[in-house]
């Protein structure tokens, strides 16, 4: 039987070990951490709890991405965490609303550009 194809950057499963990479790429939209959380389909109640901590925006974004990487959302409907989902959230008007950054990340990690 042929060996399965190696995962591509688009399909490679991501986990908490990828948190630093995500955070370093998203510094430019850290101030939009709550919108990013919503675009990544996280529970609004979780986002409200982060907001009450009154941390800086980068700490809040780290909390959002950490929760997302733990698959605390409807993975059945939206798929597991991936660079592609992140790129789409960065570009989305209800998320990071930064298409240029999304295009840059997509090119760097060899994933399709945002929709």
Describe this structure in words.
The protein is an all-alpha fold. The chain has seven helices and no strands. Helix 6 packs antiparallel against helix 7. The longest helix is centred in the middle third of the chain and has 13 residues. The chain is globular and about 55 Å long. The N and C termini lie far apart (36 Å). The relative contact order is 0.20. InterPro entries: DEATH-like_dom_sf. This is Death domain-containing protein.
Kindly summarize this structure in a few lines.
The protein has 115 residues and is an all-alpha fold. Helices cover 52% and strands 0% of the residues. This is Death domain-containing protein.
Examine the coordinates and then state which fold CATH places here, giving the name of the CATH topology: Death Domain, Fas
CATH level-two architecture = Orthogonal Bundle
Number of strands: 0
Strand fraction: under 5%
What does the overall shape look like?
A: globular
Distance between the termini: 36 Å
- Helical region count? 7
CATH class: Mainly Alpha
The radius of gyration computed from the alpha-carbon positions, rounded to a whole number of angstroms, is 14 Å
Overall pLDDT score = 88
Which regions have little confidence, pLDDT < 50, spanning 5+ residues? none
Supply the number of structural domains. 1
Give the % helix.
40-55%
Counting helices, strands and paired strands, the structural category is: mainly alpha
* Major sheet size, sense and barrel closure: none
Q: What order do the SSEs take from the amino end to the carboxyl end, as H and E? A: HHHHHHH
